[in-house]
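Risk mitigation, structural track. In case the binding assays with KYN fail to produce interpretable data, a predicted complex structure has been prepared as a fallback.
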Amino acid sequence: MDDLEGGAKRGAPWKRMSKEELENQYSPSRWVVRLGAEEALRTYSQIGNEATKRAQATGRNLLDVPYGDGEGEKLDIYFPEAVSEALPFLMFFHGGYWQSGSKDSSAFMVSPLTAQGVAVVIVAYDIAPKGTLDQMVDQVTQSIVFVQKQYPGNQGIYLCGHSAGAHLAAMMLLANWTKHGVTPNLKGFFLVSGIYDLEPVMHTSENASLLTTLEDAQRNSPQWHLKTAPTQPVDPACRILVTVGQHDSPEFHRQSRELYQTLCRGGWKASFEELRDVDHFEILWNLTQKDYVLTQVGCIPSPWTECILL
Ligand SMILES: Nc1ccccc1C(=O)C[C@H](N)C(=O)O
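Fallback model:
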């Protein structure tokens, strides 16, 4: 087994892993416990498709709203039944290693959240090979600026991302809003099973083409930026919930824990939760359920419900 970077025995644990082990650590479907890898990925799209069909058939919504000039710069907005000017908005960024997934199969949390008075926005961005990471980060920024400008009376904008989408959401901790002419009313971040340091991902086969230089990886690593030059929340009340599934790989656990620790050191109001008995995909499926801890109102106090729904 060949060690990456020759004799790097100290520092980040991934530097001591063989290529094979690193590949394994960054392949979430290999860590599922109840299904086979293929079956887990299939079920993931199926649940996403069904949740999206249900959301589109049952509530008020605006679909394919352009937030920029690009063909792929569209978002879907799902409104709660009660009409109100001052709604909280939850914006969701899907996962799929920056190269798969779509807004059309990612309306996972729409029904439990609209039922509780939250407008949910599912955002499309140009996945690779069409989009580069820098472009995706820029599109996510634009989508948030669009929602703030469109709904200036919003009761808060909450960002939620899963996997690669959690990476894109976390990049917004570093956004420079002044050049966009509006500062979004960001009240919370829900980062679900994400990757925040992209350097190890450079060495995996699936993502090698997205991240070609160490500079690309660092420029797009919230963990690296927050560690080297901590940012401050615009709104000191802004909360960040970093969650990871119990059955996510050790590298995914490390990534979430280290981001959480860095956020705490930087003065952010962050919490960390390892969600029991779920894998990388089930963690998201649970968000389709009304009685799940992350989508339930007024039960077990969780940062999620505390900040969006109270
Ligand atoms: N489709 C996804 C949706 C969400 C999050 C990850 C994926 C992946 O496919 C990850 C990787 N290709 C895997 O096989 O584990």
